[in-house]
Design goal:
Number of helices of chain B: 14
Radius of gyration of chain A: 26 Å
Number of strands of chain A: 3
Shape of chain B: globular
Strand order of the largest sheet of chain B: 6-7-8-3-9-10
Largest interface: A-B, 23 and 29 residues
CATH class of the largest domain in chain A: Mainly Alpha
Oligomer: heterodimer
Number of domains of chain B: 2
Mean pLDDT of chain B: 85
Number of domains of chain A: 2
Shape of chain A: flat
CATH topology of the largest domain in chain B: Rossmann fold
Structural class of chain B: alpha/beta
CATH topology of the largest domain in chain A: MetI-like fold
Order of helices and strands of chain B: EEEHEEHEHHHHHEHEHEEHHHHEHEE
Structural class of chain A: mainly alpha
Chain lengths: ~400, ~325
């Protein structure tokens, strides 16, 4: 078989010098990145910021920023650029201020717009907000490049400030948060359901995939068969896989009343979990096989020659050396699952996808955002957390650090 | 110490090793020498049962190794391999402590033992204890490999082309260092090599193998001066005597005598170069000097008999 290659951050030490070269190149380009950030910020300030509608479905009118706020946003658009030129150490502060200002102005403008309006009126963020927000985040990214080591955390200083704004109710007029307030506990439930789906499917596929990878790693034919099957499953679109499972699972639950009693049927959680588990198998299997095969043969031979038993070799040598690459596969599976879980709402499995589809059906953009933004943040968060774990393990096992 | 009786390894119809009878004497270094595919590595791996023989026996101090559990057998035998085989996820001290840990020795004793061994192989414990294998040069890593094999103080050491992956300079230094260690510890060492110079330099005895069978077993002198067959002579090459000299220092051959009027050579110079100087100068004797002082003279005729136990050379610096 053609050798499967691990994707993502494995142990590719040779590329390290190359990477630092690019890093230096980027560092030299910081002003350009900040110019790139200033353009959407400037354009965004001039565009409408609020869409005011009498209810969440009706057409509405676009509102622009008043002159004072327009001037503020224009100044903040240029501030990171100026800071980078004259006070590079405070660039992070200028960029962070831009992000916080976007949120603050959104809160202010949506609340102002709603004054004197009926209860069902909605004030949504319009193009200016999204463009300015994009620009501000690019500025934060550019400012982050100027920071080294621990200082990099300063580039995240805007997060607690924005959270404080939300917490204090400053953004309570923004339509997305109005929907969130209306949904309230139900939204929390769907989020929990989303996490449950991802967690369960990840757990199941790890339980199946890890032993399968161990078994396949030493057996060429098994590896070809197992990886081929997992590959085939992966090529099916997730929606199609969910659909394909409806028929056999309905048949099963009809044939065996015990299964139906256990809650297994053609739609709902059972087919969703089945599909998600199958989906997540490929990255776990592939990286597992590659990682175990990548364990240096010399280390295993030496371990055997020094009198380690098969079990000791597995736990003391193979597992620690395979773990970093393997975890990359589990991380990829987790990120994949956050996405597939959103689709699972279509067959009644719940999760954040519920809001996306509800919003699509009723053409309510705020509802879509209520599902899509947390799902995206969840994927990013899961990715970052597991990546951190990989780096830590990589440092602990094997790599110089 | 170790005896191979009619040892055989067959794969289907072909023999990797056939009817091998050998006795490895206690405290001696025996080189298993031969071209690739001659069965030398298979033989080595049958001794610690990494490969199970299809016939014959291996006796370790009179005991058939087949009666032992393979893991128990292997924990009592040091093992060094060519790719070094250090565990990349463990630091130097943890690597060296592998077998003592497997044997359940107390951690404190092992810790002391690790430091002792690192000293022995010429690595300062304070500097190297916590380094990861990736931070070591090839020579340093193989020193750790040797220390690891010696950690549980096994009477027997099996080495599979231990210096094969090193560059020539590091290999020379490590061979010297290992010769000193072996002279001090007197382990029963069996070393697989295809490098004739290495075998001539380190081995007390050489078992030369060809196509799974023993071609000749004897001291380096036996093989050079009394080859049992054309194969032995061809394998060692017509310059075998010179290669043997290359592994010795001029000082090893020096005898008391009058150095007056003779060309001088440094005591640390290898004996082959000394011979070259004789040829160039047209002299049949040289004055051997150390730090400017004459320590004796080296005659042409001295070079025909290789001294068995050259004195311990000066401690080598770390490669």
């Amino acid at each position: 078989m053609s050798k499967p290659t691990p994707t993502g951050a494995g142990g590719n030490r040779p590329s390290a010098p190359l990477l630092s070269v690019t890093k230096n190149a980027v560092r030299g380009d910081v002003p350009q990145v900040l110019v790139l950030a200033a353009l959407p910020l400037l354009a965004g300030a001039a565009l409408p910021w609020v869409l005011l509608r009498p209810n969440r479905l009706a057409p509405g009118e676009y509102l622009r920023l008043p002159p004072a706020l327009l001037a503020l946003m224009l100044v903040l658009a240029l501030l990171p650029l100026l800071a980078a030129r004259f006070l590079p150490r405070l660039t992070w502060l200028a960029a962070g201020l831009a992000v916080v200002a976007v949120f603050w102005v959104v809160g202010l403008q949506t609340r102002c717009a709603l004054v004197g309006q009926a209860e069902f009126a909605r004030a949504s963020a319009a193009a200016g907000v999204w463009l300015s927000g994009l620009g501000a985040l690019i500025a934060v990214y550019g400012a982050g490049l100027l920071l080294v080591g621990r200082q990099k955390l300063l580039a995240w200083a805007w997060v607690p400030a924005v959270l404080a704004l939300v917490w204090a109710g400053h953004l309570s007029g923004w339509s997305v948060l109005v929907e969130a307030r209306n949904e309230g506990p139900r939204w929390v439930q769907e989020l929990a359901q989303h996490l449950r789906l991802v967690g369960t499917a990840l757990g199941l596929s790890t339980l199946i995939g890890v032993p399968l990878a161990v078994w396949a790693a030493g057996r060429e034919r098994v590896a070809v068969a197992v990886l081929g099957l997992a590959n085939a499953i992966q090529t099916l679109p997730s929606l199609a896989l969910l659909g394909l499972l409806i028929a056999p699972l309905s048949a099963l639950s009809n044939a065996f009343p015990a299964l139906r009693a256990a809650g297994i049927s053609g739609i709902g959680v059972a087919p969703a979990l089945t599909a998600m588990t199958l989906y997540a198998l490929l990255p776990i299997l592939r990286n597992g096989v590659v990682a175990l095969r990548g364990v240096p043969a010399g280390a295993v031979d030496a371990a055997r020659g020094m009198g380690m038993t098969g079990r000791q070799i597995f736990w003391r040598v193979q597992v620690p050396l395979a773990l970093p690459v393997w975890l990359t596969g589990i991380r990829q599976a987790a990120v994949l699952l956050v996405g597939v879980a959103s689709v699972a709402a279509l067959i009644g499995a719940g999760g954040l996808g519920t809001y996306i589809f509800k919003g699509l059906q009723s053409a309510a953009a705020d509802l879509i955002l209520l599902g899509a933004v947390p799902a995206a943040l969840l994927a990013i968060g899961v990715d970052a957390a597991l990546r951190g774990l990989e780096v830590w393990l990589g440092r602990r096992f094997g790599r110089v650090g | 110490m170790i005896e191979l009786q009619g040892l055989e390894k067959r794969y289907g119809d072909s023999f990797a090793v056939r009817d091998l009878n050998l006795v490895f004497a206690e405290g001696e270094l025996t080189a298993l020498l031969g071209p690739s595919g001659c069965g030398k590595t298979t033989t080595l791996r049958m001794i610690n049962r990494l490969i199970e023989p299809t016939g014959g026996r291996v006796l370790l101090r009179g005991q058939d190794t087949h009666t032992l559990k393979p893991e128990t057998l292997r924990r009592g035998i040091g093992y060094v391999i060519q790719q070094i085989g250090l565990f990349p996820h463990l630091n130097v001290a943890q690597n060296v402590a592998t077998v003592p840990d497997l044997l359940g020795r107390p951690a404190r004793d092992t810790e002391r033992r690790v430091d002792e061994l690192l000293d022995l192989v010429g690595l300062s414990p304070a500097e190297y204890r916590f380094k990861k294998p990736a931070e070591l040069s090839g020579g340093q890593a193989q020193r750790v490999g040797v220390a690891r094999a010696l950690a549980a103080d096994p009477p027997v050491l099996l080495m599979d082309e231990p210096f094969g992956a090193l560059d020539p300079l590091a290999r020379d230094k490590l061979q010297d260092a290992f010769r000193d260690i072996q002279r001090r510890l007197k382990k029963t060492v069996i070393m697989v090599t295809h490098d004739i110079d290495e075998a001539l330099r380190l081995a007390d005895r050489i078992a030369l193998m060809n196509a799974g069978e023993l071609a000749q077993f004897g001291t380096p002198d036996d093989l050079i001066h009394r080859p049992a067959s054309d194969f032995v002579r061809q394998f060692l090459g017509e310059d075998a005597a010179l290669r043997q000299l290359a592994g010795r220092r001029a000082a090893d051959f020096a005898h008391p005598g009058d150095p007056a009027g003779l060309p001088t050579v440094d005591a640390q110079l290898d004996a082959r170069s000394a011979l070259g100087i004789m040829l160039r100068e047209g002299a049949d004797a040289l004055a051997v000097t150390q730090a400017g002082e004459s320590i004796g003279i080296l005659r042409w005729s001295d070079l025909q008999t290789i001294p068995m136990q050259p004195p311990i050379s000066i401690r080598d610096e770390v490669t």
